[in-house]
Specification:
By secondary structure, the protein is mostly helical. It has one domain: AhpD-like (Up-down Bundle). It is built from ten helices and no strands. Helix 4 runs parallel beside helix 8 and helix 8 packs antiparallel against helix 9. The protein starts with a helix and ends with a helix.
């Protein structure tokens, strides 16, 4: 079956049972998702490159290889370098790791855990090719998907300290919400 949502990322149609059901049922949700996906690449506050890189980090964090692959391909067609695409992939993976640890610390709420060193290598965060502000925006978006309150607050603060603004923050989180929703259908 030809899936309207997947066409936006030029992902070959396959056997996507949930998408099939939505399209067979002529659900308005198919159109909504297609328009939502299109809109994340036409932001007033982010460039297309920034939107693709944030979306890729989010797709990686959801573990959705099909969606991540479509975003990598879109990035290549938009002449986004392999180094920046790799940063986005690394961001999605690293923040999935960090979000587990820091969400645990926050939820448990014992000072002793907060004082223990994380013991995790995070060198990619020091000097990312995609730039520190964009890496922090992507980190914020992934943290929103993973529901890590302390990470969300920390990355939002970092983004603003780096000279960004709340419009860009909100747009990154909006991208995260769209990618998370679509990732539940393309499985």
């Amino acid at each position: 079956m030809n899936h309207a949502i997947l066409e936006e990322l030029q992902i070959e149609s396959g056997q996507y049972e949930l998408m099939d059901l939505l399209e067979e049922g002529k659900s308005n949700y198919v159109r909504d998702n297609k328009l939502n996906l299109k809109s994340i690449f036409k932001s007033r506050h982010l460039t297309e490159e920034e939107s693709v890189l944030i979306a890729l980090s989010c797709a990686v964090s959801t573990g959705n290889k099909v969606l991540a692959g479509g975003l990598i391909e879109r990035g290549r067609k938009a002449d986004i370098g392999a180094d920046k695409l790799a940063d986005a992939v690394a961001c999605g993976s690293l923040l999935s790791v960090n979000n587990v640890l820091y969400r645990f610390r926050h939820m448990v709420g014992h000072d002793q855990y907060d004082k223990m060193p994380a013991g995790l290598r995070m060198q990619i965060m020091m000097n990312p090719v995609m730039g520190k502000e964009l890496f922090e925006l992507a980190s914020l978006a992934v943290s929103a998907i993973n529901g890590c309150e302390s990470c969300i607050k920390s990355h939002e603060s970092s983004v603003l300290e780096l000279g960004s603004n709340k419009d860009r923050v909100f747009e990154a989180v909006r991208i995260a919400s769209v990618i998370r929703g679509i990732s539940t259908l393309v499985i």
